[in-house]
Write a structure and sequence with these properties.
The chain is of the alpha/beta class. The protein contains 15 helices and 14 strands.
């Protein structure tokens, strides 16, 4: 059995064990939660520039919470999730936070780096944990400086660091001399620009050439940037931080000019099934890489649990499960992290919870959660270690090409302390 196969088997056992723990056991007598609810809030984009991410993400959140509640909730408490659509607009995100806080949410999942930047001081002052897995403002990963901000998983710094490490390792493994020329193409937003300073520091440390290529929203035509990268700069590798509809455009346009897609690695938001399908399908995107903070695919154990729930309800599982949707899985993962934080808090403090107790619960999460995300939370590290996994489009699906790993943690820690 290969190392990846052994790990898959281990994750199956771990996922089922964690799900049973989060759901309070799942026996027939516990199928209906009987204790007071635990309230959480989740923002999402259902109408704005990132709606292609936000809608399946929302479905993943809802389905995981419904699964937990169907199995007895968290230590007998049902999880009540308040979902607010904010159209990827900062002002509406701030309004959503205030509504959730007023309605008693003990933790809030924010949407977009701009939104988190706008509410961060409020989260700390109100003592309400604000969560943004896989993104946000990377400098806020320091739990001592930002005690109520939780990136929770590998943020854009860690994803970018892992992407560069993978590119340099591949370059060396191929026996190529010197260092590769790396292009960084990104959506010109607060979140898109987030990794730039880190990449510049790594480039100086490693001695490779780095050039930046901004893409204004909505990012539906990248021909000028792609031609500049391939024909003028002559990049060896491309690290891409595109989201929304831009990743599919990038796949098509890099393919059209003959740039090898196995030299293009997108950070989490753009490494998706939707991007592949919109680009023309799996054959078109063969070789395309992603640096992601959750596992991917249709064969994940947690998806089998959700599918079973639908079947027991006499309903057909949605296409998000059966056809694979990266953003749906990210919603499942983020809900699982929030639920696990609630479970840890209830086990430590009992009911009722407040923001401080919920924060302490989030800090206690360690290990693989729901079989899709790996974190090591602590009082200081609210990112959970920055674990990333590289996936690649191979043979009609996303396949893992690395184990979980982190990269350039020393550089990241220096930036956090600066």
């Amino acid at each position: 059995m290969s190392a990846l196969a052994k790990r898959a088997t281990l994750l199956l056992v771990t996922a089922l064990a964690l799900l049973g723990a989060a759901c309070g056991g799942g026996s027939a007598s516990e199928s209906t939660p009987t204790k007071p609810p635990l309230n959480i809030g989740v923002m999402y984009d259902g109408t704005g520039a990132t709606q292609s991410i936000g809608l399946p993400f929302k479905n993943g959140i809802e389905d995981y919470v419904r699964l937990v509640n169907s199995k007895g909730g968290v230590e007998g408490h049902p999880v009540n999730v308040q979902l607010i659509e904010m159209a990827y607009e900062v002002a509406r995100g701030v309004e959503a936070y205030e509504r959730m806080k007023q309605d008693g949410a003990v933790m809030v999942l924010a949407w977009g780096s701009g939104t988190l930047a706008a509410i961060a001081e409020r989260c700390n002052a109100d003592r309400v944990p604000c969560i943004i897995p896989g993104g946000g403002v990377a400098r806020m990963a320091d739990g001592q400086k930002y005690p109520f901000i939780f990136p929770m998983t590998a943020n854009f710094w860690s994803q970018a660091a892992a992407a560069v490490k993978y590119a340099l390792d591949q370059w060396k493994a191929e026996g190529r001399p010197g260092k590769p020329k790396i292009a960084f193409i990104y959506n010109d937003t607060a979140g898109g620009r987030e990794p730039i300073e880190l990449l510049q520091r790594i480039a100086q440390l490693e001695g490779f050439e780095l050039r930046l290529f901004a893409v204004p929203l909505p990012g539906l035509d990248l021909s000028a940037q792609v031609q500049d990268i391939v024909q003028r700069y002559r990049a060896d590798w491309v690290v891409s931080h595109l989201f929304g509809r831009s990743p599919s455009v990038a796949i098509k346009q890099f393919k059209e000019v003959g740039f090898p897609l196995n030299r293009v690695i997108n950070l989490g938001p753009g490494a998706s099934d939707d991007a592949v399908r919109a680009a023309g399908g799996w054959d078109v995107a063969e070789g395309f890489l992603g640096a992601v903070y959750t596992d991917m695919g249709t064969d994940l154990p947690i998806l089998a649990e959700i599918t079973k729930m639908y079947q027991e309800e006499g309903r057909q599982p949605p296409p998000d499960i059966t056809q694979s949707n990266t953003y749906y899985v990210q919603g499942v993962a983020d809900a699982a992290l929030m639920v696990e934080g609630l479970r840890q808090a209830v086990k430590k403090y009992g009911y009722p919870l407040d923001g401080v107790k919920a924060r302490d619960g989030l800090r206690l999460i360690r290990g693989n959660v729901a079989g899709v995300v790996s974190v090591q939370m602590s009082e200081r590290d609210h990112e959970g270690g920055g674990q990333v996994r590289i996936y690649q489009v191979k043979g009609g699906r996303w396949q893992p090409v690395t184990e979980w790993f982190s990269a350039y943690r020393d550089v990241i820690q220096q930036m956090l302390q600066s």
